[in-house]
Amino acid sequence: MLLKELSEARGVSGHEKAVREVIQNVVREYCDETRVDALGNLICLRRARRTAPHAPRRVMIAAHMDEIGLIVTGINSDGTLRFAKVGGIDDRILLSKRVLVGENAIPGVIGYRPIHLIPAAERERVADMTKAAIDIGATSKANAEKLTKPGDYIAFDTPYEVLEAEGLRTVKGKAFDDRAGCAVLVELLKEDYPFDLYAAFTAQEEVGLRGARVAAYAIQPEVAFVFEGTICDDLPHEKDVSPVTELGKGPAITFMDRSFIADARLVRLLVEAAERLGVPYQFKRAVAGGTDSGAIQLAREGVPSVTVAVPARYLHAPSSILSLNDLEHTVIIAREALRALEGGLPS
Amino acid sequence: MSDASTLLKELSEATGVSGYEEEVRAVVRRAFQPYADEIREDALGNVIALRRGMRPAGEPTRAIMLAAHTDEIGLMISGLDGAFLRFERVGGVDIRTIVGQEVVVHGRQPLVGIIASRPPHVQTAAEREKPYALRDLFIDTGLSEARLREFVRVGDLATMKRTYVELAEGYASGKAFDDRAGVVSLALCLEMLAGMRHTWDVYAVATSQEEIGLRGAAVSAFSVAPTAAIAVDVGFGAQQGVSEQESIAMDGGPAIAIGPNIHPLMQERLVEVAKAHELKYQVEVAAGATGTDAWAIQVAREGIPTALLSIPLRYMHTSVETVCLRDIERTARLMALMIAGLDEAFAEQLG
What we know:
The complex is a heterodimer. By secondary structure, chain A is α+β, with helices and mostly antiparallel strands. Chain A has two domains: 3-67 and 174-343, Aminopeptidase (3-Layer(aba) Sandwich); 69-156, CATH 2.40.30.40. Chain A has helices at 3-8, 17-27, 120-123, 141-145, 176-188, 210-219, 264-277, 293-296, 324-340, and strands spanning 33-36, 42-46, 58-64, 69-75, 81-86, 98-101, 106-111, 133-135, 153-156, 161-162, 170-173, 196-202, 223-231, 252-254, 282-283, 305-313, 320-323. In chain A, the strands form two sheets. In chain A, strands 1, 2, 3, 10, 11, 12, 13, 14, 15, 16 and 17 form an eleven-stranded mixed sheet that branches. The relative contact order of chain A is 0.19. Chain B folds into two domains: 4-72 and 175-350, Zn peptidases (Aminopeptidase); 74-160, Elongation Factor Tu (Ef-tu), domain 3 (Beta Barrel). Chain B has helices spanning 4-13, 22-32, 125-128, 145-151, 177-193, 215-224, 264-276, 293-297, 325-340, 344-350; strands spanning 38-41, 47-51, 63-69, 74-81, 84-90, 102-106, 110-115, 139-140, 157-160, 165-166, 171-174, 201-207, 228-236, 255-258, 282-285, 306-314, 321-324. In chain B, a hairpin with a 6-residue loop joins strand 16 (306-314) and strand 17 (321-324). Chains A and B meet through strand 7 and strand 11 of A and strand 7, strand 10 and strand 11 of B.
């Protein structure tokens, strides 16, 4: 699958162009139409290849292209860059990371004061991000201005790598939320369906499900499936804390998150698909995070929606881990569920 | 002269937590070898290269020792908890700078790992107000528990996974520039001396175990027993959030230390040479312990007149330490020019 290229492409919310280009190049041959809308969504249509009387006419599948990241807000007199967060980032994962700044991928580092110069009491507090800066090596404001400007997007510099080739088949990289979903959509576009399949690669999910909202309005689907990379918090915990999902235990079907309650018929469709094929699946076992389903469900007069997600550890951090088994099982279950839609939505 | 960047990249990307510097030693040997008459390693893992001077007939043998340390701070695996690893620190690591960081676990085979963080979605606002403590942190290698047990044991080391990168304007960033930047200056100094005439013997010593108590410097100064010594380490370069009083200027040349750790004549000589050759330098006052190899060398045997040069470095003890490469080259040049001017008269002045 396309995961490496997708993961390494830089697409902080509002600037998804590079990711969009990776996808466009691959999906073109499977699509009857592709277009980019005003928000930067890439909407791909694969027309019905046959007819089935009970099948819905328009089905939407969606995954978001954007990732969390940073943006340049100003340049200090010493040539370092001030920055703000784009999307939900925990300040505590930012220090000492490598980043790429702007269109030209200028390398930089997020620097902080050395441990030797920080009083012990202060080390007990979360580092103050207003005192952190990105160092690109520029020695003055004027020199930095030749390389970057406020508004330039900043992505983590994280190469994709295979960690375990067999067994769990784990890989690490950035932005698996939601390039994992994008990879699933690309696979699903290769199949024949008795309905028009609209694959929406959406923009700006991380800043408020903005792309999905307008995409769903335009597509007017009868049913929607959202594919995600979701929280996997299966570290050893001292207390009885939900792991939300567990790595390698299959795609996570969401019955509810902070943005929506999934359509119960679609949840059943997915569960039955998994059980029919004997493919592992799990439920997302915490009401946490939101997905494009929250926006799609409320488009126009409402759309039955569901989210199914690939578990990924360390979401919204520079490097995350997922299991390729989970990713492939997501494709398998989704394909089977779409096939089952041929008989119409279960009642 | 070779450029500092090539060797710094190689040294920075090599692994060498205190006490386990062998990979770095191999790079150092290759760098020192072409300019050394003898090269050896001692019991603690110091690499000691001797470049002989052209001693005038009838004069006693005089030697200067140059020291820079090879070891880096890192992590040590302290336990296996399911498919995850617990760890301790080796040297002064600010926990806050390693969360979410990629590491290499040096087990039966090197394994890439990530220092696990919890996603913001599942944490309360109060939880996010507190820094992670060591007991909250794990290394995740992506292996199953069974596979992990095959490869990793308690006591295995882990280092930050960080490639070297050149930034703008002759700056570079990477891990373990403290003190591999100093080691580069020693190598460049030897190379320059090959094109100069010097009467004193020169011992370039890449020392081990500095970060945990200046151990390598103490024993190598004993065995070399030099007439005088210069330690090269890194100093706090000016950066955001650090005051002018606490730091030295980046791209300002080596900081020549002055204070109780430093022999005044050595300090004066370095300043004179810098001035005479119009080399950029700065003066740094160290009122007490310098925390560098100079501190151990000064009290080896009956005492050794010692100087300290600091290469300005930002973000010390993190995986994104940043230097201006010109400062490394200036440090090398200052030492080489100073050594070329050493004579018997200076030895007698030192006493």
